[in-house]
Amino acid sequence: MNILGIETSCDETAAAVVRGGREIMSSVVASQVERHAVFGGVVPEIASRMHCEAISGVVRKALSDAGLTLDDVDGVAVTAYPGLIGALLVGVNFAKSLGFSAGKPVVPVHHLRGHIASNYLTHPALEPPFLCLVVSGGHTHIVEVTDYTKMHLVGRTRDDAAGECFDKTARTLGLPYPGGLNMDRLADEGDPDAYKFPSPKVEGAPYDFSFSGLKSAVINTIHNKKQRGEEIVPADMAASIRRTVSDILCGRFLLAARDLGYARLAAAGGVAANSLLRRDLADRCAGAGFELYLPDMSLCGDNAAMIASQGYYELLAGNTAGSDLNASASMAI
Predict the structure, then answer these.
(1) pTM, whole model, 2 decimals?
(2) Which listed CATH number (3.30.70.260, 3.30.420.40, 3.40.50.300, 3.40.1090.10) goes with 2-117+301-316?
(3) Please, are residues 59 and 6 in contact by the beta-carbon 8 Å criterion?
(4) What is the mean pLDDT of each run of 10 residues along the chain (333 residues)?
């Protein structure tokens, strides 16, 4: 079964064809990073307009690269939620029009479910149940994946996501967009013990996260040192921030795994590409006897292959949509 996937939840216009939920036949991504870099972050209106300009060509190339036509596709999967509403609407309306004209079922896919599915593309033998840490610019979740389309939220951030913490503190350090990526590179040159930052906890919710206080602590430290004329070593600051965030993520995730009895763990999302987090998860899981699955680096960021993969399982479960499908900026997983 061939699934055409479409992803436009933020600033990547992407299309892909995946066979059987596991085999990538093609994957095309049109990035908007250069356009948004001048603003230091994604401008929703610009993102939506650029999706409109790119989506037709991106879908056409995905089908061409796969050596298929629309007749060879069994379903059109599209990110319907969550994300930037204007950006989502471009993909949803394009997918609905394409599905209606070609007589193909349209399959709405939750963006975070898609990120989790990136592990199926990297590890064809991986099957539920497992526990997954989903970390991105907008979300930080611990999710029980009991089946391909049945998931339960175990832990979540109460305020900022880990990726947002990286991006905002990177901007304060004067690093270019995308902040998280550039901070990760700079951190390799620094001392992770140079600065001490708090590790906030949520009372009564041991698996939940809170990164707002950490973000504020970092920003205040930078501003106070500048006002006193004290030297700030950006590499040391980046390394210290990265170490603190990784410790928080790994600590809560492995605690949840032990308490809930999971031996098979996975990670997903843009922050899953963070080099220290990947190393820490691998080391700690090996030491604790957990089996760890990480998506290929190329599949950590937003892409349509993960949407097509999850779309395959949603289609098998009968989760299709009609012409009344609408996008939503927020939606529980």
Answers:
(1) 0.95
(2) 3.30.420.40
(3) yes
(4) 98 97 98 90 95 98 98 98 98 98 98 98 97 95 98 97 94 92 96 94 94 94 93 96 98 98 97 98 97 97 98 98 96 93
